[in-house]
Amino acid sequence: MSARVALVTGASSGFGAAIARALGALGWSVALGARRLDKLQEVALDVEKAGGVPFVGALDVRELESIDGFFAAAEEALGPLDTVVSNAGVGAPNRLHETSPEDLREELDTNLMGALLVARRAIPSMLARRRGDLVFVSSLNAVQPRPFQAGYTASKAGVEGLARSLQMELEGTGVRATIVRPGASRTEMGRDWSAEVVGPMLASWKHWGVLRHHRYLVPESIAAAVVSAVTAPPGTHLDLIQVNPEAPLLEPTPNGEPEPGD
User: Fold this and answer.
1) What's the pLDDT score for residue 262?
2) Contact 66, 37 (CB under 8 A)
3) Which of 50, 76, 222, 262 has the most CB atoms less than 10 A away?
4) Model pLDDT for residues 58-77, shown as the tens digit of each residue
5) Which pLDDT does position 260 carry in this prediction?
6) H helices within 85-149, ranges in order?
7) How far is CA 129 from the centre of its chain?
8) What pLDDT, in 10s, does the model give residues 173-228?
9) Which positions are catalytic?
10) Which residue segments constitute the domains of the chain, with CATH numbers given?
11) What is the residue-wise DSSP string for 207-234?
């Protein structure tokens, strides 16, 4: 596979870092963007060790000037972008009436508006070269809403609407738009959530049947899905990849009927 140039937003940790490493392992050049430059430098070392060529730059997807500046610097350093992965995301769990307007605005500006602005910046160059991949990291929340995550759910539903619109707008241009939809995952997001919110939130998820077991995806699972989408051969379009954690193995009982294991 020929080397390509990719850009990953939110690349400092979690899904973004794993995606960047996986693309680096293909021998690709990878532009890593996020607000935490110190974390990006660590990921860049991993990309280089994997066989890729990293570029690191500060990126705040909420700010148009930051997006334009990062794209320009990345393209000057690495060349035209073949793949853009919109992964940057934040979550502020709580009941809607107890969530601050500032937290809601950050969720929508980062998760949805950021994806819109990044795609808007990436598309013209891809259209001119008649090739490219836009990947949008969504969430199962987009189709299976969860209580305590109204803002996050709304933003991810919007991301999928954006991707679906682009799939129609870009049909026949050589530019593909793919949704990667993770199920329950274990990432850095959520580590600073308070127990006072997380306890009732998990209880409500169980009540509504959206938490079937306590197995979680690792970031590498999502990275593998992204690689599958962007390395699909010409003439192939993986428009949606949903990734769920595998349930615990069932244990046999004395009467031969399976029951959940640990």
Assistant:
1) 47
2) no
3) 222
4) 999 999 999 999 999 999 99
5) 55
6) 101-107, 114-129
7) 25
8) 999 999 999 988 776 665 666 677 778 877 887 877 787 777 888 999 999 999 99
9) 138, 152, 156
10) 5-243 (3.40.50.720)
11) HTT----S--B-HHHHHHHHHHHHTSPT
